[in-house]
Amino acid sequence: MANSIYPTSSTVKPLWTRQKMEDVALFFSEAFNKTISAHNVESETKFEYFVDMVIDATDSSEMMAYSNEYAKIRNLSQFYVERTRVFGKPGTNIVETGFINQLPEAETLHYQFQKNPDEFFEFVSNMSETYGTVVVHDYMQYYFTLYCNSPQNWVGLGPPKTCV
C-alpha cells in the first residue's frame, strides 16, 4: 500500500533470498497463499522465492550479504541480482563489516578485512564492477577497522593498519 503512495525500499537477508515460496507457505495464512497462487497464475513474473514478493512490492531493494566468505557473498549477490532483473527492479548488494552487537564471525567480513585490507578492497572493487553498486555496512565499524579510530575522532588520513 505504501508503495502506491511514495517510493519504498526494503532490505532482505540472505535466508529470505534463498527461501523457495513452497518452503515458507506454511507460515502464511490460507488467504495470503491464495493471493500468491493467483499472482503466479495471472502474471508472467512468478514468485518462486520469498524475495520475489519483496522485490515486486517495492521500488528497490537491498540484500545484506551476511557472510565471512567472499565466494558465498558473490553467489548470493549473483542470485539476488538475477531475481531483481526478473522483476525489472533495481537491487543493491550490501557487504557487512560490522563487529559489534555480538555479530557472529560467520556473518561479517570484518575479520577478513582486518587481516588483509587489500583482498577486501579488491573484492569490493570487483563486486562494484560486476553489479554497479555495492554498499559497505556499517560505516563507523568499517572506518574503525581501517584506521583504528572512530570517524568523529579522526584528525588526519593515515595509512591503514591492523587494530588488534
Blueprint (SSEs and pairs):
Blueprint lengths: L1 H4 L3 E4 L1 H5 L2 H4 L5 H13 L7 H8 L2 E6 L4 H17 L4 E6 L13 H6 L1 H15 L2 E4 L1 H9 L17
Parallel strand pairs: 1-2, 2-3, 3-4
Note down, in words, how this protein is organized:
The protein is of the alpha/beta class. It has one domain (2-153). The chain has 9 helices and 4 strands, in the order αβααααβαβααβα. A 4-stranded parallel β-sheet has the order 1-2-3-4. β2, α6 and β3 form a beta-alpha-beta unit. It is elongated, with a radius of gyration of 19 Å. It starts with a helix and ends in a 17-residue tail after the last helix. The mean pLDDT is 84.
Structure, briefly:
With 164 residues, the chain is an alpha/beta fold.
- Portion of residues in beta strands equals 5-15%
What is the terminal-to-terminal distance? 48 Å
Along the chain, the helix and strand elements come as HEHHHHEHEHHEH
Number of strands: 4
| Total of DSSP H or I helical runs spanning 4+ residues | 9
Helix share bin: 40-55%
Whole-number total of structural domains: 1
Q: Can you list the strand order of the major beta sheet?
A: 1-2-3-4
Radius of gyration: 19 Å
Structural class: alpha/beta
Task: Looking at this protein, list some descriptive labels.
4-stranded parallel β-sheet, about 160 residues, alpha/beta
